Every structure is written in C-alpha cells, then in structure tokens.
Amino acid sequence: MLLNVAAVITLVVTQQTDTTVPVRPGMRLDVDNFGGEIVVRAWNQNAVRVQATHSSRDRIDVGVGSSTVSVKAESRRGLAQMVEYQISAPTWMEMNLHGVSTDIEVDGAQAGVTAETVNGEVKVRGGSGQLSLKSVQGAVTLQNAKGHIDVYTVNEEVTLENVSGDVTAETVSGDISLGGIESASVEVSTVSGDVHYDGTIKDGGHYRFATHNGDVSVSVPERANVTVSVATFNGDFDSCFPVSVTNTSKHRFSFTIGSGSARAELETFNGDIKLCRPGQLHDKRHNDQEDH
Amino acid sequence: MKDQWTDRLSGYLDGDLGVAERGALEAHLAGCPACEATLDELRRVVARAQALEDQPPATDLWPAIAEQIGVSSGAHRVVSLAAHRARRRVSLTVAQLAAAAAVLLLLGSGGAYLALHRSTQDNRPLARRQTGIEPVTGTIGWVQKTSASYDSAVAELQGALEQGRNSGRLDSATVRVLTQSLVTIDSAIVQARRALAADPGSAYLNQHLADTMRRKLELLRRANTLVPART
C-alpha cells in the first residue's frame, strides 16, 4: 500500500523534459546542477539534446547563446533540487559541468572537459585538451583521454587509465592509480593513500610520486633513461631489477638508469617504495594483497 | 656531512664563484660524494621551487573566494607577483637555500593569498613578504618564522569555511569530510615536524613538511572555491 502511494506521488511530482537545440562548431556546453546527476554522451550530430527528470515544480532552462549552450534548472518555488540529466552533445563540444551533490559522467568526448562537484563521483571516458576533474567527496576516474590533465579529489581515490599528456593528480585521503600513461610530466600526491604508476618514462621527462602514509609503486620500462630519487622516512625500498645507488644522504638516495635524462622523484614518509618493470607491478600488488 | 666547500655550493649554483674557485670546487665534487649529493638535493629543491613559481599566480584568487563566501576583500591590494619576481634575486647559504626553497614550496599556492593579506605599507622585498622571513640562519628558523603567517592564513580560511557551513552553503557531510581531511593533514604535519626537529638538516624533511603544509592551505583554498554560490 505504501509503495503504491509512493509510486503515485512519484508520478505526480516528477516530470520529463526533452529538448534538442542545434549548435555550431566552437560552441561550449555549460551545465549547472545542484543535485542528482549529469550524464553526457557524445554523438556525431551538431545538436545538443537535453533529457531531464525533475520535479514538476522545476523548469529546465536550455539557453542558446552565441558561444554557449547553458543548461540549468529553475524552480517556481525555492531552489531547484534534484535533476537527472541525460545529455547528448557533439564529440567536438567543450563542456563545463558543475554540481554540488551531483555525480558527473562523460562518455566519448573529444574536446576539453571541466567537471566539478562537491559530493559526487566524476567519471570521464574520452576527452582531449584541457581536462579538469574535481570533487571533494567522490572518486575521480579518467579513461582514454589526452591533453593537459588536472585531477583532484579530497576524500576518495583517483584512477587514470590510458591517458596521455601532462598529468597532475591529487587527493588527501585515497589511493592514486595511474595505468597506461603516456606522459613526460606527471605529478601525483596524496597524504594518506598508495600511489601506483604504470606508464612511460620519457627522456627529459619529470615524474613525481609522493605520499605521506602509503606505498609508492612505479614501473620503469626496460629502456628508460631516468635518474631516480628515492626518499622515505619510515619505509623500505624494493626493486624488481638491480640498481646501483650513486648518491646517498639521510632519508634519500638516487640512482641512474640508462642515460638518466628523465627525472623521477619517489617519496613517502611512512611507506615502502617499489620499482618494477611494466606488468610486474600488477602481479606484485596482487600477490601483496593476497598476502594481507 | 659538512666540509669547507659546503657553504659555497649555493654560490656555485648561482654562478657567483670565480673561475679558480669554481674549478677547485668542481675538482672537489669529483671526489666528494657527500658534497655531490648535497648539491644534487639543492638543485632539486630549487628546481621544484622554481617550477611552483612558474605556475600562474592567482593574484586575484582571494577576491573571488571572498565574494563567494561573503567576506570583505576590499582592504586587500592585489600585487603583481610577476613584476616583483622578475626583480628578485636570492643568494643564500646551503641551509638558507634549502629553507627558502621549502618556504617557497609551502607558499607556492598560498603566497598570493598571504601577499593580499599583508599591509599595503609593507615595503619589504616581496620574497621576504611572501615567505614572512628575514634571511634565516638555520633550517628550523623558517618553520618558526613562517608559522605565524601560515597559522593566520589557515585560521582565516577555516573561518571562511565555518561561515560557509553556518550559512548553509556547505552541508554537514561535506564539512565532516573536510574536517577529517584536515585532521589527516594535521597529523602528517605533526609527524613531519617531529622528524624535522630530530633531523633539522634533512632537505627531504624540510621539503616534505613544506609540501604537507601547502597541502593544507590548498585544501582550504579549494574547499572555499568549491563552495557554491546559490542564488
């Protein structure tokens, strides 16, 4: 009985909006949503389709300007609350997505993506150019993207897979896992969490992996040319292949692989540092997890 | 380890040594792994400090935050860091260089914020205003002398967050997460401080402490910028 009442109430208070507007190359998509979700799927049409599930008190405003399509909810009474957006946008369209208690998901974009939320996950598959993904309370995941990548969360993990370009990834409490990375500039740091990197070490590149409480594991390809600096206060260093330490000071030592033209800094205050070949780290992590 | 050459490493990096002295030092470096290691660490901290400085300084950051969270920013003057930076030249001893680099790391993102909050009558060079220190004589010095500025910045940003919570702009769950994260960082700071107190000469610990303190400022700053302005 209660379920029936709830279903009737839901039917009464929810509403669907479905609007499609034409767009021109160069235009940007701006979406602002307080609560709910924003899901954007890229398609090969020069149009933006906005499908929204929302309260009947709210109205979805799709504004088309000279350079932007802006999507937001307006309420007849008070503030618009929960809106579930399903948006289709051209692959070339840059997007700027903002939420508060909002999950954000983007799939198939081939342009820049800015996605920021306070309480919610951010998942982006695809993207090119400037990619800025941020959350406070939610995991951030980026896959199959290239460009200048800036990823930040506070209380969850960061995962990057098959990504190329400059990478900056930060969290406070959470692991950071980077796999299939092709980059000459990677800066990764967390305060409480593990750091895992599996990707290229390019000549002349700069790589920094740092945590306070956690392990750091990094893969170094066979033919890499890199000077590695290792620093740990309470922890051990382990390498799957032999290294010859050249410079040592308290809490830090370094060694050179090949010509040493790239620079890698591996730091953890409380934790171990592991160096392996690509593919070995996954096996090693798997074994370590089984041991625990 | 410290020998007669250690204090000249800074000058060497700056290109201040004469030809003869430079040649002698390089000959010494070839046979002194300790000095070579020290020089390598100095290069690293300086490089990191320079890299952070090269990030676009958010000189107009605070007014935007203040507007979002409803705090007056009218009394604060925006300064051109680039202009000051172009004129700046720092020459320090090894310990001073390590300390200064660490402070720059600490204030890399918060420096503009601090600069905005200093008196417009402050005519000291920007490097000193940013770091809040006169040239220091030891690695412990910078921690002590920057604490007041750092604490002030943290207190103000935390106050702003508190206002955000009280005004309903931040929900209790988000505040709880931020608080837990701040506790996590504070714990790391305490550990790093203790380690540094026991080993004040460690460039790694200096750098790590500075990085961790910077993370706290950055978290507070980011949290404030993420506070939505609901109208």
Topology (elements, then pairings):
The complex is a heterodimer of chains A (292) and B (231).
Chain A: H1 2-13, E1 14-22, E2 28-43, E3 47-55, E4 58-64, E5 68-75, E6 82-90, E7 94-109, E8 113-116, E9 122-126, E10 128-134, E11 140-152, E12 158-164, E13 167-170, E14 176-182, E15 185-192, E16 195-199, E17 206-213, E18 216-219, E19 226-234, E20 237-239, E21 245-249, E22 252-257, E23 262-270, E24 273-276, H2 280-291
Chain B: H1 9-14, H2 19-30, H3 33-53, H4 61-69, H5 81-87, H6 94-107, H7 111-116, H8 126-131, H9 139-166, H10 172-198, H11 203-226
What does this protein look like?
The complex is a heterodimer of chains A (292) and B (231). Chain A is mainly β. Chain A has helices at residues 2-13, 280-291; strands spanning 14-22, 28-43, 47-55, 58-64, 68-75, 82-90, 94-109, 113-116, 122-126, 128-134, 140-152, 158-164, 167-170, 176-182, 185-192, 195-199, 206-213, 216-219, 226-234, 237-239, 245-249, 252-257, 262-270, 273-276. Chain A has a domain at 157-292. Chain A contains two helices and 24 strands. The model of chain B is unreliable at 52-96 and 98-141 (pLDDT under 50). Chain B starts with 8 loop residues before the first helix and ends in a 5-residue tail after the last helix. Chain B has one domain (56-226). Chain B is mostly helical and 231 residues long. Classes of the chains: A mainly beta (292), B mainly alpha (231).
